[in-house]
Design a protein that fits this description.
Blueprint: H1 3-9, E1 14-20, E2 23-28, E3 31-37, H2 42-50, E4 67-71, H3 80-97, E5 100-103, H4 107-135, H5 142-149, H6 151-172, E6 177-183, E7 192-194, E8 198-200, E9 207-209, H7 212-222, H8 228-238, H9 243-253, H10 265-295
Antiparallel strand pairs: 1-2, 2-3, 3-4, 5-6, 6-9, 7-8
């Protein structure tokens, strides 16, 4: 169904359309609305309502329809450093309100372990093959030279994460329950709005899972922009992570990106530089916390 038909069926007349990312802002005779393709899981939406988590936009469409039509929320001009802290507090509230425990079978953690271990092995082989090709050249490009100068750090990071994974696996393999929450599952600063109250928008990827996956997604999207030590502390002041959750979170955020050389030399250098910066920033975040956790 076309957007015009959808609006007319609700007695709304469109006057202007403006594309904003994956959404369309619609100016109408009854004010502004947001249209986006993709539906929200109705069970999750009902669960959020039952748990009095009200920080969502108002949906004008039925839950079984393949689009979202919501009220337009005017976002206040707040410094992004403050906004990310307000976001993480709301995420901690979301997780605290929707916490429950699920029985798991013997294979559950084994599959996670095997997937992560296979990924680490693949990364090691990938970068070994890549550096072998690079070092065989008479002249390296700037991006190749940048990778070659940091290859030892890449190997060390993979090795340390392998030890981290084995340690987590040894301590988790007898567990028979997992703490689960509603995950927004697409956390980034642009999906958090502050107006009369705080709102999380863009819920079409939401699901049930371990709380660490929202933190992992947020880190993937903003690792180099903010002080995540402060962000994680703010989150845990409201919703402390379990020891095994924090260990798995550190394993996930320590995974090295797979960088190829398919783009321009300038872009290749940027990608490798970003990867190396992320390695060092992640190391600074997790090493002090790991030492403390293992001492306990």
């Amino acid at each position: 169904m076309k957007i015009n038909q959808i609006l007319k069926s609700k007695g709304i007349i469109a006057r202007e359309y403006k594309k904003k990312g994956k959404t369309i802002v619609i100016n109408t005779n009854k004010g502004k609305y947001i249209y986006k393709e993709g539906k929200i899981n109705p069970q999750i939406l009902n669960y959020l309502k039952s748990r009095s988590f009200d920080y969502l936009p108002f949906f004008l469409n039925n839950q079984d329809e393949s689009y979202q039509l919501t009220n337009y929320i005017e976002d206040l001009n707040i410094p992004k450093e403050q906004k990310i802290l307000d976001l993480i507090k709301l995420v901690a509230l979301l997780h605290s309100k929707t916490t429950h425990y699920k029985e798991i079978d013997l294979d559950y953690y084994e599959e996670i372990y095997e997937d992560l271990d296979n990924n680490l092995n693949y990364l090691y082989i990938y970068y070994t093959d890549l550096i072998t090709i690079i070092e065989s050249k008479v002249y390296m490009s700037p991006s190749e030279l940048l990778l070659a100068r940091n290859i030892t750090k890449i190997y060390d990071t993979i090795s340390e994460n392998k030890k981290r994974l084995d340690y987590w696996h040894e301590n988790i393999k007898e567990k028979r329950k997992e703490r689960r929450v509603v995950l927004h599952n697409n956390l980034k600063l642009e999906h958090f709005l502050e107006s009369d109250t705080s709102y999380l928008v863009s819920w079409d990827k939401s699901k049930i899972g371990s709380p660490i996956f929202d933190l992992y997604k947020l880190y993937q999207n903003h690792a180099l922009e903010f002080d995540f030590k402060t962000i994680l502390n703010e989150y845990e002041n409201i919703y402390p992570l379990l020891k095994e959750e924090k260990e798995l979170l550190f394993i996930l955020i320590s995974q090295i990106d797979l960088v190829n050389f398919d783009d321009s030399e300038y872009i290749n250098c940027k990608k490798i530089s970003k990867m190396i910066d992320k390695i060092y920033k992640t190391e600074m975040l997790i090493l002090p916390k790991e030492s403390k956790n293992r001492a306990e």
